[in-house]
Predict the structure.
Amino acid sequence: MSIHVSRSIEASARRLFPNLSLEQALAQMLLERAQKNLIKYQAMIRQFGDKYGMDFEKFQKKTLSSEPSYEEEQDYFDWELAVTGSVDMQAEIDKLQKSARSK
């Protein structure tokens, strides 16, 4: 993989990640972002679980079999986004960690 970056970005990468190549530094930054996103999604999942006193699967069944309020409907979509995002970010983290180990 070829990375073309400006001199100032390259200098910053070398200062922040002195023992890594540019490609490794980029992978590390992507990994850190994915981990940050995962934490955000997991916090959302916990908040909704606390709010409704159940996990997403139970809330989904309840919501889809009833006439939810506007707030419940919005929470359903946000909670589903958090669950999907959490799965996606964990897969991305696994992929980035696997890639880092193979280098």
Q: What stands out?
A: The chain has one domain: 7-101. The radius of gyration is 19 Å. Residues 7-101 form one domain. The longest helix spans residues 70-101.
